[in-house]
């Protein structure tokens, strides 16, 4: 596999608490525009750097932690976790705020000041031609043994006006807009209330449900990710740890085992399929950490943990490869898949820290190894941006890497 370590420019981002052996929530974000690299930091700072020199252009403070970024027309839209669950649009040229929306108005104010109780804007989908932004927000609360989710999906016009809302008592995790821009798929990770469908496909113009799908499994785990391509919808199922492709009407075209419950020694282990990406008749799924059916701790590994596997339009295997660590998100464009790989807390080997690139048709295409962990990435043509965060494993006592944005290429 090709490796290019000398083609990335680095810009330090200051101090941040080191990650530990286990994965943390999304703390940073990055987006590429025509001439800038935009970084969202955990303290609320959003900075636009020149795409060539990485010199700062402008900087602003967003209300909350800016974990989600999107570009709509000439505006940067920022969403994140905070008391108000704020979505705001800022001019790409200057950083001046255009409009603001507080999702807490719909999902409710936090019951406590704990991080996971704060409203979170966690996913965007963009209709670039119409200038429409779709955003998903959620809030979690727990009262004793009772766990509740409150969520909303918005269709937002270019001026921030709400065209429609779709509200449920489940936890959305992903959005995907169909190629024809007429349907929006919403993947729900947790369904603990009256809403019990892992996937809802909405009419993009009205917000009315078109069809639903669910793995039909016990428990509240449902779906990890969704991806529309060529009229079909690919789904990474948390419920049964399989991958699916659904027809335009929601019927199942095919399904494959990804990290299903498997006996390893005297334990039964599984891993969640956390990400999926479909394009041009092919689909790739990415799995995460190993968990035992009984309890949470194990020293063993599921044979398909931390893997990316690609399939053709009929569900036949094309290729698979190891991503070696936890992947927070995927950055994709055409057949390019960029995986920012973080720590593998059961192996704790700094050599797993890398940004890895795959070609959906051909497989592994390159990697960029770094000292810290890669937690966010963006890709545009031949340019890749990544966020490095420092990590200190609990049984080592050594800090690896720094908080920085890196921009360059990573192609074979």
Automatic annotation (TrEMBL):
InterPro entries: PQQ_b-propeller_rpt (IPR018391), PQQ_rpt_dom (IPR002372), Quinoprotein_ADH-like_sf (IPR011047), WD40/YVTN_repeat-like_dom_sf (IPR015943). Pfam families: PQQ_2. SUPFAM superfamilies: Quinoprotein alcohol dehydrogenase-like. Residues 26-137, 198-324 form the Pyrrolo-quinoline quinone repeat domain. Keywords: Plasmid. This is Pyrrolo-quinoline quinone repeat domain-containing protein. It comes from Natronococcus occultus SP4.
